[in-house]
Design brief:
With 290 residues, this protein is of the alpha/beta class. It folds into 2 domains: 2-161, NAD(P)-binding Rossmann-like Domain (Rossmann fold), CATH 3.40.50.720; 167-287, N-(1-d-carboxylethyl)-l-norvaline Dehydrogenase, domain 2. Helices cover 54% and strands 13% of the residues. The chain contains 13 helices and 9 strands. The chain has helices spanning 10-21, 37-41, 50-53, 66-74, 96-109, 122-126, 138-151, 163-193, 197-205, 212-223, 233-249, 255-271, 280-287, and strands at 2-6, 25-29, 45-46, 58-61, 87-90, 112-115, 118-119, 130-134, 152-157. A 6-stranded parallel beta sheet has the order 3-2-1-4-5-6, with helices on both faces. Strand 8 (130-134), helix 7 (138-151) and strand 9 (152-157) form a beta-alpha-beta unit. Helix 8 (163-193) packs across helix 12 (255-271) and helix 12 packs across helix 13. The structure holds NADP nicotinamide-adenine-dinucleotide phosphate.
């Protein structure tokens, strides 16, 4: 298929690479054009704007946040200025309010939004092992399925309203944050009492907690392997703020969310923007004097 791909960061580069490997014709665009070079060397064509990347009828985007998606859709040379309106497959983790606005704008312009945020870090993206939460019009979803098959191991359909997939992703990321917080607190207690983190990880993941989320993040915490970041702390903070916005709008108290958010914020204040968000475990350890 002819497909555009916009946003070549940690996730986007790996995902676009897998679309190429699966034999699709991929036209790529990134704000910082140099990041497109490896993909162009691998056979992609370089688009001069998001609108040009969208010319094939389907464009995927994988961008940092609401502001980045706004710039790439509504800005000069943006997707909405494409001559014929495409299906926009938005993979980024964005807010619910913004997803609703985006969905309305695409429909009004004669195109369509498919929201398809993903679960899995850059290593999973590289291995085409992402989990995809997708929602949108059934015919648009059906057209996108071969693309999802090229980048992920499983697609979950959340219905025909695109923002439902964004809500699912925010719920999932809240849970990931709370798992990191919970693992960090448990490992800090164990460590203080003399059980090494690696031993705790072996027991937990070898017994009741044998799930990818405990294995992946538990391993990072056990090894203090927070750099280079796979998912940066500012993106984690962005997600916790988006969960908070949705929870406020829907009147759902989420007390654990505040704990996770504060630890991510402390982490950025102390260690800067480039650290992995799971280093919030260091804040938990620090509070215990470790
Ligand atoms: P990243 O490496 O920081 O890449 C961000 C991308 O957004 C870059 O292509 C960047 O362009 C672009 N961008 C930022 N601001 C922009 C703007 N104003 N206008 C145009 N482009 C802009 O982030 P990532 O880790 O790939 O994450 C991308 C999305 O996936 C985020 O929504 C994140 O929450 C989500 N996600 C990440 C992971 C993960 O583990 N990393 C997992 C699942 C979902 P430049 O290159 O020019 O800066």
């Amino acid at each position: 298929m002819k497909i555009g791909f916009v946003g070549l960061g940690r996730m986007g580069t790996a995902i676009a690479g897998n679309l190429l490997k699966a034999g699709h014709e991929v036209s790529v665009w990134n704000r910082s054009a140099d990041k497109a070079e490896p993909l162009v060397a691998a056979g992609a064509t370089l688009a001069t704007s998001p609108a040009e990347a969208a010319a094939g009828g389907i464009v995927m985007s994988m961008l940092a946040d609401d502001h980045a998606v706004e710039a790439v859709v509504f800005g000069e040379g943006g997707i909405l200025s494409a001559r014929s309106q495409p299906i926009h497959v938005s993979l980024s983790t964005i807010g619910l309010r913004f997803a609703e606005r985006l969905s309305g704008a695409h429909a009004e312009a004669g195109g369509a939004l498919v929201s398809a945020p993903v679960f899995g870090r850059p290593a999973a993206a590289e291995a085409a092992q992402l989990f995809i939460a997708a929602a949108g019009a059934p015919d648009a979803l059906a057209r996108c399925q071969p693309l999802f098959d090229a980048i992920g191991q499983k697609t979950f359909i959340l219905g025909d309203s695109a923002p439902m997939a964004n809500l699912m992703k925010l719920c999932g990321n809240f849970l990931i944050g709370s798992v990191i917080e919970g693992m960090a607190e448990a490992m800090t207690l164990g460590q203080r009492g003399g059980i090494p983190k690696a031993k705790m990880l072996e027991v937990l993941t070898g017994s009741l907690f044998d799930a990818p989320i405990y294995r992946v993040y538990g391993d990072i915490i056990a090894r203090d392997a927070y750099s280079p970041a796979g998912f940066t702390a500012p993106l984690g903070l962005k997600d916790m703020n988006l969960v908070s916005e949705a929870a406020n709008d829907m009147r759902v108290p989420m007390p654990v969310l505040a704990v996770v958010r504060n630890h991510v914020l402390s982490l950025i204040a102390r260690e800067g923007e480039e650290v992995d968000w799971s280093a919030l475990a260091r804040m938990v350890e620090g509070e215990a004097g470790i």
